[in-house]
Amino acid sequence: SVSNGLIAIKFGSFTYATTEKVRRSAYSCLDAQFYDDETVTVVLKDTVGREGRDRLLVQLPLSSVYNSEDASEYQFTGAYSTRLDEQCSAIPTRTMHFEKHWRLLESMKAQYVAGNGFRKVSCVLSSNLRHVRVFEMDIDDEWELDESSDEEEEASNKPVKIKEEVLSESEVENQQASAAASAPEIVIKVEKLDPELDS
């Protein structure tokens, strides 16, 4: 427990295991939520990334950010009466590099996240509030949502995608324009998140 601790996190690089390529970019945090007592789930936006491939879902273990041995190095020396954005140089910063525990959120303008460590899921909501993706973050062998699809997916050794159909942003806009009187449709996608496959 630290009474005067404050650490800024700079997201350095994410390693794409399939290509052994390290991708460097600049990231801004769109939303963050505690997944459990020891982990924060974060939605990041790559400020120079390609449209449709610029959002990331990251599980940030607090133990990798701060430990008691670093306490003196990461003491906040600024004034609590002054806004933090006016004293950036006084905030200790740690750069984090990730090889796993992250996922590229393709074809979705992810904006918000909610996590539940007890249920082992994280939900990502799009910026237009019409797309929801539910990720199973840490799967126990006994806990399966859809037994029939799980057996087929285990045979193919791919991550389980409970619902395949997700409307793209343009499809939703076209659908909304053609059916303005009807209620908007919300699409939910549930996936198993395997850090070894997705990192």
Automatic annotation (TrEMBL):
GO annotation, biological process: anaphase-promoting complex-dependent catabolic process; cell division; protein K11-linked ubiquitination
Comp. bias (Acidic residues): 145-154
UniProt KW Cell cycle keyword: yes
InterPro entries (UniProt xref): APC4 (IPR024789), APC4_C (IPR056358)
Domain Anaphase-promoting complex subunit 4 C-terminal half WD40: 1-136
Region (Disordered): 145-182
CC per GO annotation: anaphase-promoting complex; nuclear periphery
Superkingdom classification of source: Eukaryota
Keywords for this protein: Cell cycle, Cell division, Mitosis, Ubl conjugation pathway
Protein name: Anaphase-promoting complex subunit 4
